[in-house]
Amino acid sequence: MLVSRRYSKITEKLTVPIRTQSDQPRKMPKHIFLKAVALLVLTLCALDQEALAQRSSRPARITPPVTIQAVQPEIAYAVSMSRPATHLLEVEMRVKWRAMPDQVDLKMPVWTPGSYLIREYSRHVQQFSATSPAGAALAWRKTSKNTWQVDTKGVSELVARYVVYSNELTVRTNELNDEHAFWNNTALLMFVKGQLAASPTIAVRPFGNWKVATGLPAVDGQTNTFRAENFDVLYDAPFEVSNFTEFAFDAQGKRHRYVITGEGNYDPARLSADTKKIVEATYKIFGELPYNDYTFIVNLRGGGGLEHLNSTALQVSRFGFKPDSRYKNFLGLVAHEFFHVYNVKRIRPDALGPFDYENENYTRLLWVAEGATEYYSNLLLVRAGLVSPAEFLLQRSAGISALGQRPGRFETSLEDASFDAWIKYYRQDENSVNNQISYYDKGEIVSMMLDISIRSATAGAKSLDDVMRYLYVEFFKKNRNFTDADFQKACEIIAGRSMDDFFAKYVRGKAEIDYNSFLSGIGLQLYSDPASADRAYFGLDTLEEGAGLRIRTVTAGKPAYEQGLNTGDVIVAIDGYRATQAFLQSYLGERKVGDKVKLTLFRYDKLREFEITASADNRKGYSIIPLEAATEAQRSLLKQYLNADLK
Ligand SMILES: [Zn+2]
Questions:
Q1: Alpha-carbon distance 627 to 94, whole Å?
Q2: Which of 153, 301, 384, 617 has a CA 20 to 30 Å removed from the CA of 602?
Q3: Average pLDDT rounded to a whole number, residues 192-202
Q4: Centre of ligand 1 from the C-alpha of residue 344, in Å
Q5: Residue 343 CA, ligand 1 centroid: distance in Å
Q6: Nearest to 632 by CA among 514, 494, 459, 515
Q7: Lowest mean pLDDT among 173-177, 438-442, 526-530, 568-572
Q8: How far is residue 242's CA from residue 81's CA, in Å, rounded to a whole number?
Q9: Rounded to the nearest whole angstrom, what is the distance from the C-alpha of residue 89 to the centroid of ligand 1?
Q10: Looking at residue 531, what is its pLDDT?
């Protein structure tokens, strides 16, 4: 916090993360920091006095200003792809440095912001070499998994060359093949230890006649060359290089473009019009678009999205734009990543920027970064008229039903799930349902309840929009990150009352959410279907595999779990009949509560038999429906919330 605030005065006008001189500014002990500030103040005073003395006693002379820039290296990358079929992206990194030390550590990031898992990008680096500009070899050695230490004594410029194996298309990795190149700079470009404030350039040498797309600004007069103002900006910007299709639209006077690689069943005109509605709906919350231009990079394979400062990388199946239900899913993804322009890329939780690229960056706020973003992505679609209020409520009901079936909701809080994302969220296993919740899914539901409770508490005068705007103005605009305490405080300021009970139960705690206490405020209620309790239930989740059914998960508290079945067991017969998915569904569906079935299964390599007794199916399916006899005040709050009338 203190370190960030140091820069608040000089950086208020900037719209991107500010990188300090140090890699890990937050780790500077307070007393050292205070000494450094004192020294800086003294130095500035001394300079001031010297300047005064110069003005009074000597003729004016032009002296170059002493800036941080002078001691920073000039770093220039060139990325080539001469043999796409090899999946090898070729990198040349030139480090020109007046203050070149005797040894330079070049480092690969181990993760990429927005995807909270150590991914060890250095494992794909090969053919590393280091030379002087004239080609004289420089000695080097690996000193850690992601550090190449080069002997640079006597040279003022270091040229490092390496290739990176790139054959994994996800939004956080790299792919090069004969159709395109897509990469994240975190997974491709090394940095110089301690020099993340440097402003690098990156020149792309495309294969054949491929075009280059990125959110980074181009360097005038240099083909396919871009500059980042610091490494947080460099590492934020993905590249797509291919014969992509490009189309653009303007919103609030700013250019937005789609860059799509691959053929698919999308309609450029409709996609532009609908995305513009999403951009406009988001603009209405914050009152500004904090970028010069915005690029939606889409690959028509894989799935998912990753947020960036003025771009996003999206992946969807090439025929994922029809029918309408799938198209709406894609628009939801667009809205999610676009809302991140504000929430997480600029409204930044404590540890998320400037980033430490070599270690986990812990925060208890991913439920706000991701859960609230997911909530808004759906709300924005309603506000943009792309999804109906009824569809919105149906989806939220499904989310509430799914959370209610996870025993893990009593094991892990939203804050804990956020903090442990690094070891759990991207490493789901068969036990996750029993000991975890998703900070996306529960975060979305809790954000909705938070929004509704603020609307109720203020009779509709305020909402979660005001909290987001408050964070944008009070934190991003003042170049501060926010803490979990700041977030609660912001909600309380907007709601005009304490929300400690809410945060203690649903954010820090693991209490069952009392949905109706919130929904009733806006004339809605959660309704559960009473009929399901008569059905027999075994609690088996299976996948057809070879000649049997492999058990994928066993839910704690249900018959399969309580009576000894394991994930990985392969059921080959049910009451003596061949086990198939269709048979399992129809046969078990006819059983009554208390009936027994004999399961013959392989556990590892041994044939076993289990007799399982069915229990009642206590799983609840929920729907959100109008409250009977809602008051006029409740009706008007709902109207304001979803532009919907109670029927
Ligand atoms: Zn997200």
A1: 66
A2: 617
A3: 98
A4: 9
A5: 9
A6: 459
A7: 526-530
A8: 11
A9: 28
A10: 59
- pLDDT value, residue 381: 98
| Interval between CA 105 and ligand 1 midpoint (Å) | 33
The answer to whether residue 507 scores a pLDDT higher than 60 is yes
Mean pLDDT of 135-152: 98
SS3 assignment, position 580: coil
- DSSP symbol at 378: H
The Å distance, Cα 307 to ligand 1 centre, comes to 7
Band (43; pLDDT cuts 50, 70, 90): very low
DSSP-assigned states of every residue in 517-549: HHHGGGTEEEEE-GGGGGSEE--EEEEEETTEE
Q: What is the 629 CA–ligand 1 centroid distance (Å)?
A: 38
Domains of the chain with bracketed CATH: 2-66 (no CATH), 70-242 (2.60.40.3650), 245-320 (3.30.2010.30), 366-528 (1.10.390.10), 532-616 (2.30.42.10)
Residue 258 CA to ligand 1 center (angstroms) comes to 19
Phi first, then psi, for residue 19 (nearest 5°) are -100, 130
CA of 635 to the centre of ligand 1 (A): 32
Distance 263 CA to ligand 1 centre (A): 26
- CA 572 / ligand 1 centre spacing (Å): 41
Residue 57 CA to ligand 1 center (angstroms) comes to 60
Ligand 1: distance of its center to the CA of 526 in Å? 27
Q: d(Cα 584, Cα 561) in Å, to the nearest integer?
A: 17
The alpha-helical segments, DSSP class H, found in 440-508 are 441-457, 464-471, 484-495, 500-506
Task: Using the mean position of ligand 1's atoms as its centre, give its distance from the Cα of residue 532 in Å.
Answer: 34
* Helices and strands counted in the chain (H then E): 19, 29
CA angle 14, 20, 21 (to 5 degrees): 140
- Residue 367 CA to ligand 1 center (angstroms) comes to 10
Q: Answer yes or no: is pLDDT of 646 > 70.
A: no
Q: How far is the CA of 32 from the centre of ligand 1 (A)?
A: 36
- Cα of 339 vs centre of ligand 1, distance in Å, is 9
Tell me which DSSP letter residue 71 carries. G
Percent of the chain with pLDDT over 70: 88
For 447-463, write each residue's pLDDT tens digit.
999 999 999 999 999 99
pLDDT for 62-114, tens place per residue?
444 444 445 899 999 999 999 999 999 999 999 999 999 999 999 999 999 99
Distance from the alpha carbon of residue 97 to the mean position of ligand 1, in angstroms? 38
- For ligand 1, the distance from its centroid to the CA atom of residue 373, given in whole angstroms, is 6
CA gap 146, 120 in Å, rounded: 8
Phi first, then psi: give them for residue 214, nearest 5 degrees.
Answer: -160, 165
Ligand 1 midpoint to CA 306 (Å):
7
pTM over 0.90: no
> Cβ atoms within 10 A of the Cβ of 507, count?
24
Q: Among 52-61, 222-231, 257-266, 460-469, which stretch is predicted with the lowest mean pLDDT?
A: 52-61
Ion ligand 1: residue ranges with CB closer than 5 A: 370
What angle in degrees, to the nearest 10, is found between the helix axes of 389-404 and 373-383?
Answer: 160
Task: Give me ligand 1 centre to Cα 434, in Å.
Answer: 24
How much is the average pLDDT of 208-213?
98
